C-alpha cells in the first residue's frame, strides 16, 4: 500500500473510531454528570479534535515508519516460547505497551510543564475552562511531542506484538482519556492511585496554586506516588480549571494559530512570560494579554 492510500485509510479509521466512541463518552457523561455541560463547548472541542486528525495521522505515520526501519534493542519474540503463543504474546505486548508508554508519557508530561517551549503549546490543553469528556482538545503539536518522546523510545527499546488485543486495549485507553476529563460523579475513589480518574486529573488542570504540577500520570496514578508529584484529592475537591492569565481558543483560527502572541507560562514556575517579557509571579503584568487571543 502506498503512503497516500495508507494515510487516507488511517484517517478514515480514526474518524470511524471518533464516530462510534463519541456518543458513548458523551452519553456516559450526560447520565452521570455533576452539572450540565454547555453543548456549544462540547461541539467546539469536538471540532478542534476532528480538524487535527489528518495532521496527527501524518506525523504519527512518519515517525512510526522511521522507527520501524531501526532494529530495537529487544524483541519480545526473543523470549523462548512467546512466538508460538499468539494470545500470550498479544496480551503481554498490549499490557507492556500501555505501561511503558504511560511511563514515558509521565516524564514527557513533566517536561511539557518545565520546558517553556513545550509549555507554550501544552498550555492550550490547560487553558480549557469548561473541561469535559468531549471538550479536552490539545494543540496539534502534542502528537509530534507524543510520538517523539513517548512512542519512539519504546519502539527503539522493544518490539511488541499487541495485535487485536492491542487494538481493543487502545479503545479502552481512548475512552479512559475522555473519562478523566469528564464531569462524571463516578470515580475510582481510593483506587485512583492505580487507574487514574477524573477527580485526580481535574487536580492537574486546576487553576489553584496548591494543585500546580501535580498528578501528571494519565492512565496510572502510581507514577505520581513513585516520583513525588501525587496530590490525593479530598472527596469533595472539584476545582475550577484553566490557566489564570490565558484565555482559551474560541475559534478554529485561534486553535490553529495558538500560540499567536502572548502566552503566559502561568504559575507553573517562578517566571511568567508575557509578550516576550518576563515578570515575576508576584507582579504579574497581563496588560498585553487580550481576552480571546
Ligand atoms: Zn499538563
Ligand atoms: Zn488533561
Largest sheet: 2 strands, parallel
Using DSSP, what is the number of strands?
Answer: 4
In angstroms, what separates the terminal alpha carbons?
42 Å
- Number of separate domains: 1
- Written as H for each helix and E for each strand, in order along the chain, the element string is HHHEHHHEHHHHEE
Strand composition percent = under 5%
Mean pLDDT: 85
Order of strands across the main sheet: 1-2
Overall geometry comes to globular
The bound ligands are: zinc ion
- Taking all Cα atoms into account, the compactness measure Rg is 20 Å
Overview of this protein structure:
The chain is mainly alpha-helical and 293 residues long. The chain has one domain (3-257). The chain is 52% helix and 4% strand. It contains ten helices and four strands. The chain has helices spanning 3-32, 39-51, 53-68, 86-114, 116-126, 141-157, 163-180, 198-204, 222-226, 252-257, and strands at residues 74-75, 158-159, 271-274, 277-280. Strands 1-2 form a two-stranded parallel ribbon. Helix 3 (53-68) packs parallel to helix 6. The termini are far apart. Mean pLDDT is 85; it is low at 263-293. Bound molecules: zinc ion (2 copies). The site of one zinc ion (ZN) has 6 residues, from helix 4 and helix 5.
